[in-house]
Amino acid sequence: MEDRTQQEQASPEVQKRIQASFDRQGLMAHLGARITHIGPGRVHIVLPSRPEVTQQHGYFHAGATSAVADTAGGYAAYTLFPEDTEVLTVEYKINLLAPATGDHLEAVGTVLKAGRTLTVCQLEVFGVEEDGARKLVANGQQTLIRVNKPEQ
Description:
Helices cover 26% and strands 41% of the residues. The protein has 4 helices and 6 strands; from the N terminus they run H-H-H-E-E-H-E-E-E-E. Strands 1-2-4-5-6-3 form a 6-stranded antiparallel beta sheet. The longest helix is centred in the middle third of the chain and has 17 residues, at 62-78.
């Protein structure tokens, strides 16, 4: 049975803010990643398999795996932040559990504890096959900080 928070959608305003911020990320565009779910405290990012995101053995590169995990957690936290703030990663640790293979990766960031200044997220990355079979290939934990938007 799927977790209810996985299906819950963030408000249209929050979804628009998250997507607009994501669209400004050069690295995510370069990798070909896209957001597939924005819920309160939970964001999913998909990274399609292609040669540019693999390492020498044909697996997804750990850097690409880590980048989508970090970004999913960051935006999961950002869904809970006030509109006049931004999010920055303070630190994260990721365990690569298995070679990352499949049609695409799905990174899932989930808020474990939201605070006034610091927020802690769980990071999970799944290798997903064309038939929908999923395998956990990486997991981790992340700390994020809420900061004021820079003055324009």
